[in-house]
Automatic annotation (TrEMBL):
<dbReference type="InterPro" id="IPR029024">
    <property type="entry name" value="TerB-like"/>
</dbReference>
<dbReference type="InterPro" id="IPR007791">
    <property type="entry name" value="DjlA_N"/>
</dbReference>
<dbReference type="Pfam" id="PF05099">
    <property type="entry name" value="TerB"/>
</dbReference>
<feature type="domain" description="Co-chaperone DjlA N-terminal">
    <location>
        <begin position="19"/>
        <end position="131"/>
    </location>
</feature>
<protein>
    <recommendedName>
        <fullName>Co-chaperone DjlA N-terminal domain-containing protein</fullName>
    </recommendedName>
</protein>
Length: 148
């Protein structure tokens, strides 16, 4: 079947949902004014194990990250976040927030800018307070060091 996909004009998987899911993560990564390699590695790892990204190559994910950064420069963070929320179901909004929360702890700490970005993200994505607390609890558990 893949042999004939080019004949049907297939351009690959639709990345609309994937881009919307990682947009809050990219905003969180950039909140402190820089994007660290540990944050990029963490996001790549999350994408690699999420069924949302099955069939989407790493290069395409890198391109999506760059598109989001360009969108932020052109439209602003809040608009990018609102657009992402607009294409995600409530369940995938929770997933997007979970990704962003995980990214915020990639370097082991959440700074004030990341905390503010996460709060704004939760509000725009309309993540229920109880779900939000569960997500944060699990993310903290996942990020415990070996000497905990």
């Amino acid at each position: 079947m893949a042999l004939f996909s080019r004949l049907r004009g297939s351009k690959g998987p639709d990345t609309t949902i994937a881009k919307a899911v990682i947009a809050p993560s990219v905003l969180t990564m950039a909140a402190d004014g820089r994007i660290d390699n540990s944050e990029i590695a963490q996001l790549a790892n999350l994408c690699g194990f999420s069924p949302i990204f099955f069939g989407i190559e790493g290069k395409v994910i890198s391109d999506l990250i760059n598109q989001i950064i360009s969108d932020v420069r052109a439209k602003g963070s809040e608009q990018v976040l609102r657009e992402a929320a607009g294409v995600l179901s409530p369940a995938l909004r929770e997933t997007a927030f979970c990704f962003a929360a995980r990214i915020s702890l990639a370097d082991g700490t959440i700074d004030r800018a990341e905390e503010a970005t996460l709060a704004a993200t939760a509000a725009v994505l309309e993540v229920n307070r109880d779900v939000l607390n569960k997500i944060l609890d699990v993310v903290v558990i996942l990020q415990r060091p070996a000497n905990a």
